[in-house]
């Protein structure tokens, strides 16, 4: 399993409740792709969303977002993580 | 205290050890700005680094990176976070 960060744009003015609803749609379909979304962060001013996930491939993560109705093409594999 | 994600580009081929050294330089100076860097993730293929931090302002976070020798201008405040 690899770790990924994907980035969405255009979520200007989105509320926490709306982000949670979108995230719940990811969680509802993620198992079909072997993906798990760990956390998501939103900057409602710029409209950027960052999603941290684990899964078998970039393509699998992007398919989950597509099935959930909020596709993106910007994703990075993160083999290196430090705390 | 607010939460932030900043993004660096150009770290192509950087190793875990090199990222750790860079992160240690942040940790060495962060207290002077009231900032704490929680985690950092690197995609050595695209050269992107994502840093998750908390602190009083975007400017304070960026000053830490500048003092540590790896400035960036791309930063987002994250008032909304979900798990």
Briefly note the CATH topology name of chain A.
Alpha-Beta Plaits
The count of β-strands of chain A is 5
- Total of helices of chain A: 2
Cross-sheet strand order for the largest sheet of chain A: 2-3-1-4
Strand content of chain A: 35-45%
CATH architecture assignment name of chain A: 2-Layer Sandwich
The CATH homologous superfamily of chain A is termed ORF SCO4226, nickel-binding ferredoxin-like monomer
Q: Mind telling me the C-alpha Rg of chain A? A: 12 Å
Find the biggest chain interface: A-B, 28 and 28 residues
Distance between the termini of chain A: 19 Å
Tally of individual domains of chain A: 1
Q: Unreliable stretches of chain A, pLDDT < 50, 5 or more residues?
A: none
Given helix and strand content, the structural type of chain A is alpha+beta
Q: What does the main sheet of chain A amount to?
A: 4 strands, antiparallel
Q: What letter string, H or E per element, gives the SSE order of chain A?
A: EHEEHEE
Mean pLDDT of chain A: 97
Question: Can you characterise this structure?
Answer:
Chains A, B: InterPro entries: SCO4226, SCO4226-like. Chains A, B: This is Guanylate cyclase. The first copy, chain A, has about 80 residues and is α+β, with helices and mostly antiparallel strands. The first copy, chain A, has one domain (about 1-75): ORF SCO4226, nickel-binding ferredoxin-like monomer (Alpha-Beta Plaits, 2-Layer Sandwich). In chain A, about 30% of the residues lie in helices and about 35% in strands. The first copy, chain A, has helices spanning about 15-30, 60-65, and strands at about 1-10, 35-45, 50-55, 75, 80. In chain A, strands 2-3-1-4 form a four-stranded antiparallel sheet. The two termini of chain A are about 20 Å apart. The interface of A and B includes residues 20, 38, 44, 50 and 77 of A.
